[in-house]
Design a protein that fits this description.
With 360 residues, this protein is an alpha+beta fold. The protein is built from 16 helices and 9 strands. The chain has helices at residues 3-9, 29-44, 94-105, 108-114, 128-131, 143-153, 159-169, 179-187, 190-201, 209-220, 226-237, 252-265, 271-277, 314-324, 336-340, 347-356; strands at 11-12, 68-73, 79-82, 88-89, 223-224, 247-248, 282-284, 289-294, 298-303. A 5-stranded antiparallel β-sheet has the order 3-2-9-8-7. The protein has a two-stranded antiparallel sheet with strand order 1-6.
């Protein structure tokens, strides 16, 4: 990126010790690792119910039985289990990075003139809402929205700028473009091409459509690991600042917007269900990756290429659901939950208690 762009996206600051309320601190590392290991065994049982993404031929070659997690607390030791260091393509998780850079380089008003802030309720590659109305894409975390963001970024930054920033924000200098996946996607991206040309017809994309499509597809084709995503998640959890080197990688406002959209839109048409059952802002990708942010607590990266009907890692979602409350990762976690031992099976007890107190 140009020098003035670097100043916007990456500012060095004095490292500050993160403040974490004692009620929300993760439990002791060894015990946490035991809980995660048990949750991974339960999550693996979900794998036969899913399937790898075959509409991109190169992704169809992935081993669906892989599963890994890296949990990186703001305070405490990193916990890495399973296939946490296996390389896979970032796919739609890159939409978070594109959004971050667009907000920093182009500004909030410019970004949200092109895209909305609302959940779509449609599949990630849907063009229905664009075709039947004069609306702009619902949000930047679906394909149409990310393509619109790419059109905004293209005159400002190159792909090399983006991959350099991705390496830095993920603390992973080994991130590279997966050429075989990129070629495979470009040969089979008819739907995204249709979306891009529809956006051009509406004046939302004003750059060259094919250049925009290549830029977007390259962003989706970067090789990362679950650990890479956990490193990014940790910076988001700490207000955009790296705990290790004290550098700010995005503004507080950008970090807040990214986390909010991850919670409301990050799991496509499964976002509402995921928010209720798991309660951790998360962005998925069809390569099997999940980027999760437990604010002020931890960054989490998960890899599990077998997908559910919404295109989200089926074992990864189960894994996060199993550890969310046990490790105090839920955005809405309350220490009173521990006392009440609240879970899905407590509904009948709560109802009887409400009736006894004449609340219902």
């Amino acid at each position: 990126m140009a020098d003035n762009t670097n100043e916007k996206v990456l500012v060095t600051e004095t490292a500050a010790e993160p403040v974490i309320d004692k009620h929300y601190q993760l439990i002791e590392t060894k015990r946490a690792a035991e809980i995660i290991d048990k949750a991974m065994n339960l999550a693996r049982e979900e794998i036969p119910k899913g399937a790898v993404a075959t509409y991109i031929p190169e992704l169809g070659k992935m081993d669906p039985h892989q599963l890994g997690i890296c949990l990186y607390p703001l305070k405490g030791d990193k916990i890495c289990l399973g296939d946490y260091d296996t390389r896979f393509t970032i796919q739609s998780v890159s939409k978070v990075i594109m959004l971050i850079v667009a907000l920093e380089v182009c500004g909030l008003k410019a970004v949200f003139r092109k895209v909305g802030m609302e959940p779509s309720g449609e599949a990630f590659d849907s063009l229905v809402e664009l075709d039947v109305s004069n609306s702009k894409p619902y949000n930047p975390l679906i394909n149409s929205g990310a393509l619109a963001v790419c059109g905004l970024l293209l005159p400002e930054v190159s792909f090399q700028d983006m991959i350099r920033y991705t390496r830095n924000v993920c603390s992973d200098m080994d991130i590279e473009l997966n050429e075989s996946v990129f070629d495979s996607e470009m040969k089979t991206c008819s739907r995204n091409r249709s979306i891009a040309y529809l956006l051009e017809s509406k004046g939302i994309i004003t750059t060259d459509v094919e250049d925009t499509l290549r830029f977007y597809t390259k962003m989706c084709s970067m090789n990362v690991t679950a650990e890479s995503l956990a490193n990014l998640g940790k910076k988001l959890a700490n207000d955009g600042v790296c705990v290790v080197d004290g550098k700010r990688y995005m503004s507080s406002r950008t970090a807040r917007i990214a986390k909010t959209l991850m919670l409301t839109c990050g799991m496509y048409d499964g976002s509402g269900t995921f928010a209720i059952k798991v309660g951790i802002p998360t962005k998925s990708g069809v390569g099997g990756g999940l980027l999760s942010v437990s604010d002020k607590r931890a960054g989490i990266g998960v890899f599990g290429p077998a997908l559910d009907a919404q295109g989200n890692s089926i074992a990864g979602c189960k894994l996060l659901r199993e550890i969310s409350n046990k490790l105090r990762l839920n955005l809405f976690y309350d220490p009173e939950w521990d006392k009440e031992n609240a879970d899905e099976n407590s509904d009948e007890t709560v109802l009887k208690d409400m009736q006894a107190r004449s609340v219902m």
